[in-house]
C-alpha cells in the first residue's frame, strides 16, 4: 500500500525542488520562533537584578510561568493544528506573539513582565508545535533527518544569540536590560516578517500533506504513544530547567573568564554538531544505542561538572554533555514520526505539555533552593540524573519491544 511515509528510506535530496524550498523556509521560520527563549535566559542575570529585585525565587517563578505557558501553548498548537491546519494556527499565534513581544519590551514591573512573557511564550509554543507537526508529512520517508535539520537550524541561532548578548554585557558592564527591550521589538518585527515570507509555503505544504495517505496499519499503539510522551517529557523538563538556570549558576562564581551567556552558545554549538551528525546518518541506523547511551554520558558529565566548583571545568563538562543531549530527542521524534504517523501531533503536543508542566515544577523548586547557600549548586548537580532516567526508560522499552511477539494487522488497527 502506498503511504505518505516512504518505506525505502529515501534521503531529503530526493524531495522535489519546490517542496524542498518550501520546507527550508518553514524550517527557517521555526528556528526564529523556537530561539526566542534563549534571549530570555541569556539576559536573565540583568533581568533578575533590574526587574526581579535580585531574587532567585522570583526568577524561578518566572521560569515556572514560562514553562506552564509553553505547556498550554503546546497543547493548543498540537490539537488545533490537527483540527484546523498549521497555517491557521501559525497566523493566530504569530499575531499574538508579535503583540506580546512589544508589550514585553515596554513593561517596567515584575507583574506585567510575568504576564507579557507568559503570553509570548504561549503563542510561540503554539506556532512551533504547529510547524513541527507538519514537517514529517513532507519528509519523504526521512523524518528523523528532516527534524534534525530543523533542530540544527534552531541550534545555530541559539548558539549565536548568547554570543551577541555576552558581547553586549561586556560593553555595558552586565547591565543590558535596555538591550533586552530592544530585542523584544526586533522579535516582534521578525515574527511578522517570517509569517509574511512563508504564508504561501505553509498553505501549499498543508495542501500537499492533506493529499498524501498514510498506511493505517502504522498508526502505532497507545503503549508506544505513552512511552514517547514520557520520554519526551523527561528530556524536555530536565534539559530546559538546567538550561534556564545555567547563567545564574555560573554568575555565582567569583571570577568569570568569559560572560556566562557564552556558555549557552557553547551548549547550543554541541547541539548543532550532534544534529548535523544525525541529519547525515542514514534513517533507522543505530537508533537503539542512540536512545540509550547519550543520556547516561550526559548525566555523568553534567553532574561532575556542576559539582566541580570550577568555572572552566563546569563549562567544559556542560559543553561536552551537549554532544550527547542533542542526540536523544531527534532520534525519539524520528521514531515517533515513523511509527506513530497519525498520532505524531498528539505525541508532540502531549510530550511538550507534560515536559513543560514538569519544567515549571522543577524551576520553582530550583529557584527556592537557590535562595539558600549552596542550594543552587546541589540542585544543578542532581538534575542531570533525569537524563539517566531517560536512558533507563528507553532501555526497558526496547527490551519489551524485542520480547513482545509480533502483532497481526488486525491487532495493529
Task: Characterise this structure.
The protein is mostly helical and 413 residues long. It has one domain: MFS general substrate transporter like domains (Growth Hormone, Chain: A, Up-down Bundle), CATH 1.20.1250.20. The protein is built from 16 helices and no strands. The chain has helices spanning 17-34, 36-42, 44-50, 56-84, 86-106, 110-134, 143-172, 177-211, 222-251, 261-280, 287-307, 311-339, 344-369, 375-382, 385-403, 409-412. Helix 1 packs antiparallel against helix 6 (110-134) and helix 9 packs antiparallel against helix 12 (311-339). 55% of the residues are buried.
Brief digest:
With 413 residues, the protein is mainly α.
Main attributes?
413 residues, mainly alpha, Growth Hormone, Chain: A, 0% strand, disordered C terminus
CATH class: Mainly Alpha
Query: Can you count the beta strands?
Result: 0
- The CATH superfamily title: MFS general substrate transporter like domains
- The CATH topology corresponds to Growth Hormone, Chain: A
Amino acid at each position: 500500500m502506498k503511504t505518505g511515509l516512504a518505506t525505502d528510506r529515501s534521503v531529503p535530496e530526493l524531495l522535489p525542488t519546490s517542496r524542498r524550498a518550501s520546507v527550508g523556509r518553514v524550517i527557517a521560520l521555526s528556528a526564529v520562533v523556537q530561539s526566542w527563549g534563549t534571549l530570555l535566559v541569556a539576559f536573565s542575570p540583568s533581568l533578575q537584578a533590574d526587574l526581579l529585585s535580585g531574587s532567585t525565587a522570583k526568577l524561578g517563578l518566572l521560569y515556572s510561568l514560562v514553562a506552564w505557558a509553553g505547556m498550554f501553548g503546546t497543547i493548543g498548537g498540537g490539537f488545533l493544528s490537527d483540527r484546523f491546519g498549521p497555517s491557521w494556527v501559525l497566523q493566530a499565534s504569530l499575531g499574538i506573539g508579535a503583540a506580546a513581544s512589544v508589550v514585553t519590551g515596554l513593561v517596567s514591573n515584575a507583574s506585567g513582565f510575568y504576564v507579557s512573557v507568559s503570553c509570548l511564550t504561549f503563542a510561540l509554543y503554539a506556532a512551533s508545535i504547529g510547524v513541527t507537526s507538519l514537517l514529517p508529512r513532507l519528509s519523504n520517508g526521512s523524518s528523523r533527518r528532516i527534524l534534525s535539520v530543523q533542530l540544527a537550524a534552531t541550534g545555530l541561532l541559539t548558539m549565536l544569540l548568547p554570543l551577541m548578548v555576552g558581547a553586549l554585557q561586556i560593553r555595558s558592564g552586565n547591565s543590558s536590560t535596555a538591550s533586552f527591550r530592544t530585542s523584544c521589538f526586533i522579535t516582534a518585527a521578525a515574527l511578522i516578517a517570517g509569517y509574511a515570507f512563508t504564508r504561501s509555503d505553509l498553505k501549499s505544504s498543508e495542501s500537499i500533506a492533506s493529499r498524501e495517505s498514510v498506511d493505517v496499519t502504522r498508526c502505532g499503539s497507545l503503549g508506544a504513544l505513552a512511552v514517547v510522551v514520557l520520554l519526551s517529557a523527561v528530556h524536555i523538563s530536565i534539559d530546559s530547567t538546567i538550561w534556564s538556570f545555567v547563567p545564574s549558576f555560573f554568575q555565582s562564581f567569583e571570577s568569570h573568564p568569559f560572560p556566562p551567556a557564552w556558555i549557552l552558545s557553547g551548549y547550543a554549538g554541541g547541539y548543532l554538531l550532534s544534529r548535523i551528525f544525525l541529519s547525515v546518518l542514514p534513517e533507522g541506523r543505530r537508533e537503539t544505542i542512540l536512545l540509550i547511551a547519550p543520556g547516561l554520558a550526559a548525566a555523568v558529565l553534567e553532574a561532575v561538572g556542576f559539582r566541580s566548583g570550577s568555572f572552566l571545568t563546569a563549562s567544559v563538562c556542560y559543553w561536552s554533555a551537549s554532544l550527547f543531549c542533542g542526540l536523544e530527542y531527534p532520534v525519539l521524534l524520528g521514531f515517533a514520526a515513523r511509527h506513530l504517523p497519525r498520532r505524531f501531533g498528539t505525541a508532540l503536543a502531549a510530550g511538550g505539555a507534560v515536559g513543560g508542566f514538569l519544567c515549571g515544577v522543577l524551576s520553582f523548586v530550583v529557584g527556592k533552593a537557590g535562595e539558600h547557600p549552596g542550594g543552587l549548586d546541589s540542585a544543578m548537580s542532581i538534575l542531570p540524573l533525569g537524563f539517566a532516567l531517560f536512558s533507563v526508560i528507553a532501555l526497558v522499552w526496547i527490551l519489551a519491544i524485542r520480547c513482545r511477539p509480533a502483532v497481526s494487522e488486525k491487532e495493529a488497527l
